[in-house]
Amino acid sequence: MLTLFRWLAGLPLGLLHLLGTTLGWAGYLLSPEYRGRMKANAAQAGLSAAQWKPAIASAGRMVMELPYLWTRSPNDPILPRMRFENEALLEAALARGKGVLLLTPHMGCFEVAAQAIAERFGALSPITVLYRPARKPWLRELVKTSRERPQLHAAPATLAGVRQMIRALRKGQMVGLLPDQVPPDGMGVWAPFFGRQAYTMTLATRLVQQTGAELLLTWAERLPHGAGYVQRFYAFPEELPADAAESARRINHAMERLILQCPQQYLWGYHRYKSPRPQATGGSEEQE
Hints:
Largest sheet: 7 strands, mixed
Structural class: alpha/beta
Strand order of the largest sheet: 1-9-8-2-5-3-4
Radius of gyration: 18 Å
Strand content: 15-25%
Number of strands: 9
């Protein structure tokens, strides 16, 4: 499997995306459960079929670009494929030295976002991202090493990983989270997401409260035909209150606004409204 993964990494990005389109539609047509969840989640957001159905192919493209993104040599920069918008927001926040917490939904190419930020802003600050170790040994090592690049650090989804992020923010560095990930039981609160209660992590709020870090939103749009990506940055629209439930509501609302910018690239098949899994020994906080 690893050999196939590395072989795929050598294919042009445009071809990987073309293969991903086929993969996305195959998964949609062959899995009634996945198909039903995509339809239900998109309907919950009030979208028409024309608005969300392109996300079927987008999900497959996300999977097929992973070999390139995960096994690419550190000497092969991603920046030539990346364009930035509103990056002055991040530069200014880093200059203030309080640390920056970057939030992005499961939208576009969230795997490329941290790599591009590390390459573009690594001279100012490294970035630490939380990841969940894979269950299969060969994939576990691949995932970990793929997310350890120059100026890009991977924190495991454990209490030790949370402490690592806190230390990074207190040093004035960057941390990245996907706040629409369902956390383990006891590590979140129920808050509305597109009008339905969803178990929502409280980690982002706790990191801001404990470190005084600034909060920014970002996402990386996948351009057609393998043309690259556009990374966009936004100010968080409001302060996070101390109340965990209200803070989660505001974060979910901010994610909704980002997602509605480009619902064609959101992972509508993600099981966002599931009940949380039991907390693992050691108190992990799950994050892609």
